[in-house]
Structures are given as structure tokens and as C-alpha cells.
Amino acid sequence: MEPSVQTQDQTTAKYSVGIDLGTTHCVMSFIDTQNEDAQVEVVAIPQLTAPGTVESYKQLGSFLYQPHEHEMGHGSRTLPWTSEPKALVGAVARNLGSKTPIRLVASAKSWLCHGGVNRRDSFLPQGSPEEVSKVSPLRATELYLEHLKDAWNHMHPDNALEQQDVTITVPASFDPAARDLTAEAARNVGLAHLTLLEEPQAALYSWIDNSNDKWRDEVNVGDVVLVVDVGGGTTDLSLVAVTEEDGNLNLERVAVGEHILLGGDNMDLALAYRLKMKLAQDGKELQPWQVQAMTHACRDAKEALLNDAELQAVPIVVPSRGSKLLGATLKTELTQQEVQQTLVDGFFPQVGVQEHPVQRARGALTQMGLPYAQDAAITRHIAAFLSRQSNATENAFAGIPGMEAAPEFVKPTALLFNGGVLKSKLLSDRLFNTINSWLESANAEKAKMLSGLDLDLAVASGAATTAAFVAVKAFAFAVVLRLATISVSRALCPLFQVWLLQWKHYAWLLLVWKKAAVCRYRAKNLVWSSVNLFTSNSLVRQLAAKTKQVST
């Protein structure tokens, strides 16, 4: 299925909704397309946090818990819209799964793009006993979307999500099969008016929208923006060239990296194995399920330590089994030093731009699981990407005097970071300084940081913004065509004359957008739509409102 921009009647689609289906979190945002002063809002999603307890958060954990038959009694699963939800997802799944990991489905998004398995088969949680109910990666994705849909419909009973324009983001490196499955999951829960948008693109649009039209002061013709998105499960890399067309600045996506399964999940696992070795030195051996449980505990401890440099250590409790549960429980701690050594030096080492990841043949056992990146150094993956794409900007900057045609590596002039991992100042500073050390050694100017993003919410917000601009322009064009049928006397009014002269312009805008949407789906290295399509939000809404008044 090819993604398309589907325009609805304006009286039906009141909102444009953006959904970020992340590996570890889902976020939903929206904008009211009928209110010219509306801003993007992030939905606080009601979810169970413990049996019988409902709270609302801006993130829905991408976790699914498969409880045993008698684990949660009647009434303990009640949500605001139902007393019998189809699945336990979100915070409660993460909390219960940290204690019983064999019943927890995690990283469904990573499995959805794994071509080595049948993604419609029910095998998650992988490696769990037969008595644990299994789901497919596709079904897990549907259940996350269903929870988001039910939450939205509960809060907007007169504007069901099925009737809104919905944009779901996917990694730029997602292959066509993974994109098809994402679209299929959305259709299966009733979301027919759907557009797929690449995550780095959504983050860039969010940055543009947040800049209040000042983005043109931060980038110039000839700039190359490196977008680095390090999320829970993947590292997504894109290059964007700033070009000029008819006196207007354009942002052209010129390269996208390979699909790299490397992110926060890998960091949690690395920390868990470090603690496993520390316990082994004390003569305490852990079972595989205990390492899984400790991995989830390390996630929370990691976030606490990275967000508070003054915090020296976080206690870690390793669950056990048996009648003497409390006596058998193991305790250890994760220290600030261990986090910095493992994550900063292990995942963001200071390497040269010529140092690239080393690929080795995978063993049969490794192939049974997710194909995680064999080299954990994100900086080496970025160095390899910039070196491979040394000719990526040649076409974009053709004819611009002074632009180097074929450097040994692409030298970005600006950096845009996204993803929960890079919320840590410690990690983002290390990455920023490492990339600039490459530029300095090549006698190039240092890259500047493009700031202003909420790294957890930017992708969903950018998706909602993009969809809103498209919807408003589509409505404006539809009204223009309607005006063309009005009587000659009314058609001679000044406002109609202006719109009649410009109707071809709006037709061109829609044609470009639709073609670009199809191209983005079919290939990786194609031109992004002109940013001019998305930077005149207020103006377009005002024109649409005035035209609507005339048409009535």
C-alpha cells in the first residue's frame, strides 16, 4: 500500500493528529485545523499504572503485558472507557513486566522491521513458556494504536479518531514491508485517513514550527544539516541540504542511513550485564530471566543518573523465586561512574572520522533474536554514514560557487538531535564535541546546534503540524474550485479575483505534496517537500477562513 494524503470534508476532519509509534514510548499530538490560532497540543494519555490505578501521561509505554489467568482481579483493569480492555499496555505493562519479564512484550517496533521472521506470527514475548499468550509484532502494534484511539475517542466523543487526518511516523530507514505493516495495523483499528511520515522529517518540521519562522536566520544556502535520532530501539541518520529555488530557501533530504538497531534498549542491556558480572565476582550467578528483570530496572536507574549528575548511585533489586523470596532477593547498585563508563565511553567513544564499525558474520544463535548492531559505538556509525555519503550533496549544490564536490566525508554545518537518549546533556555534549573534532581536523568550521526541540515529543508534534498544513491547503484549494462555479457577478468581487488568479498555484502545491509523499515511500534519497509548504500556517488559515465566508 502506498501512503497518500487523503483530504476529508472540513466539517468531518476537525483535527490533524500525529502519532509517534516509538520503540519504548508512543506519543499523540493534535492541532485544530479550524482554529487559526490553534497550537499543537500533546495528548495526556490515560493508562493503568498499577492494578486499579489510572493516571494520564504524555507518553504511553510501548509495552504489552500478558498476565496469567488470576493475576488481576475484576475491576483492577478498568480504564475510563471500558472495564475490560483488550490488553494491558503502557505504564502498568512496564511495571509488571519488570518483575515478570517472561510475560512482557517489548521492542515490537524492532520486530516489525525484522525481515528474518514472519511478523504476522505470534511469538512474542520471545522465549516465554507455552502458558504465556503470544502475539505477533503486527498485533502488538495494533494494540498500542487501539489504546491511543480509545483514549482519543473518550476525550473527543464528537470527533472520533477514525474521522480525523492521522499521520503516523516511521524511521526513515524502515523498508517498504515495515511501512506496509505499520499502515496495515492502522487500518485494522479503523484509521483509514492515514499518512506515513519519516521521523527525522517530522522532527525537522517541529523545529521549524517552534522557531516561529526564525529558522531562516539559523540556516543558509549551502548548509548541510545532520539529523541524529537516537531512540529506544534505533539510531536514525539523515542529511538535509539547504538550497535555494526562486529566491526561497528549501530543505532537501539528500541521504538517509541504514536501519541501525542500536539505542536505549542496548544501553539498558549493557548496564545489566555489567551488574551481572559485578554480582558474579561476589559468587552470585543470575538466571537469564533475572538478567531480563534487571535490564528493566537499569532503564529507570540510567534515566535517573543521567538526569542528575549529583546522584551517585541507584539501588537495584534483583527478583528471585521460591518460598524464601525476601531472603533470596539480591541487591546491588548502579553507580554514576558505571553509567558514564558504559554509556559515554562504550556508545559514544571519541573516535576519528575514519574509524568505522566492523561487521562480522552472525552465528545461528544470534540470528534467532533481533539483529542488533554488532558495534555499539554510535559515533563510529555516524562516521561511516558521513563517509559513505561524501557525494550526497553534489546534486543539491550543483552550480553554487565554492561548494566542494567530493570531500572525503560530508561536513555538516548544523546538527539537529532527537530521541530520548540524547536528552542527556552528558551524551549529547559528547556527540556534539566528537563530530566537531572531525570537522576541526579537516580544517572545516564547527557545526552549530539547532535547538528548541522537546526530544520526547518533537516527532509527534511535527507529524501533527505537517498534516495540519496539508489539510488547510487542501481545504483552501477545494474552496477555490467551488468559487469558480459562482455566478459572474459574485466572481468579480476583489477577493474572488485574487483567489482565481492563484488557484493554479494551490493546485501545484497539492500535486507536489502528493508526489513527494509517494516518492518518500518508494525510495530513501528523494527530495523533501519545500518547507515553504509548511511555514505559512497562520496566513493560510486566515485566507481559508476568508474564502469560506465568501463561499457561503
What is the element layout, followed by pairings?
Elements: E1 15-21, E2 25-32, E3 41-42, E4 45-50, E5 53-57, E6 60-61, E7 64-65, E8 88-89, H1 91-99, E9 104-105, H2 108-112, H3 137-155, E10 165-170, H4 176-188, E11 194-198, H5 199-210, E12 224-230, E13 235-245, E14 248-256, H6 264-281, H7 288-307, E15 313-318, H8 325-328, E16 330-335, H9 336-347, H10 364-367, H11 378-388, E17 414-418, H12 425-441, E18 448-449, H13 458-483, H14 488-491, H15 494-522, H16 537-551
Parallel strand pairs: 1-10, 10-11, 12-17, 17-18
Antiparallel strand pairs: 1-2, 2-3, 2-6, 4-5, 7-8, 7-9, 12-13, 13-14, 15-16
Give structural notes:
It is a single chain. With 552 residues, this protein is α+β, with helices and mostly antiparallel strands. The chain folds into 3 domains: 1-211 and 454-552, Nucleotidyltransferase, domain 5; 218-261 and 372-449, 2-Layer Sandwich (Nucleotidyltransferase, domain 5), CATH 3.30.420; 264-360, ATPase, substrate binding domain, subdomain 4 (Actin, Chain A, domain 4, Alpha-Beta Complex). The chain is 39% helix and 17% strand. It has 16 helices and 18 strands. It has helices at 91-99, 108-112, 137-155, 176-188, 199-210, 264-281, 288-307, 325-328, 336-347, 364-367, 378-388, 425-441, 458-483, 488-491, 494-522, 537-551; strands at 15-21, 25-32, 41-42, 45-50, 53-57, 60-61, 64-65, 88-89, 104-105, 165-170, 194-198, 224-230, 235-245, 248-256, 313-318, 330-335, 414-418, 448-449. Strands 1, 2, 3, 6, 10 and 11 form a 6-stranded mixed sheet that branches. Strands 14-13-12-17-18 form a 5-stranded mixed sheet, with helices on both faces. Helix 1 (91-99) crosses helix 7, helix 6 packs across helix 7 (288-307) and helix 13 (458-483) crosses helix 15 (494-522). The longest helix is centred in the C-terminal third of the chain and has 29 residues, at 494-522. It is globular. It starts with 14 loop residues before the first strand and ends with a helix. This is Sulfate permease. It holds the Pfam family HSP70. Belongs to the heat shock protein 70 family. Keywords: ATP-binding, Nucleotide-binding. GO terms for molecular function: ATP binding; ATP-dependent protein folding chaperone.
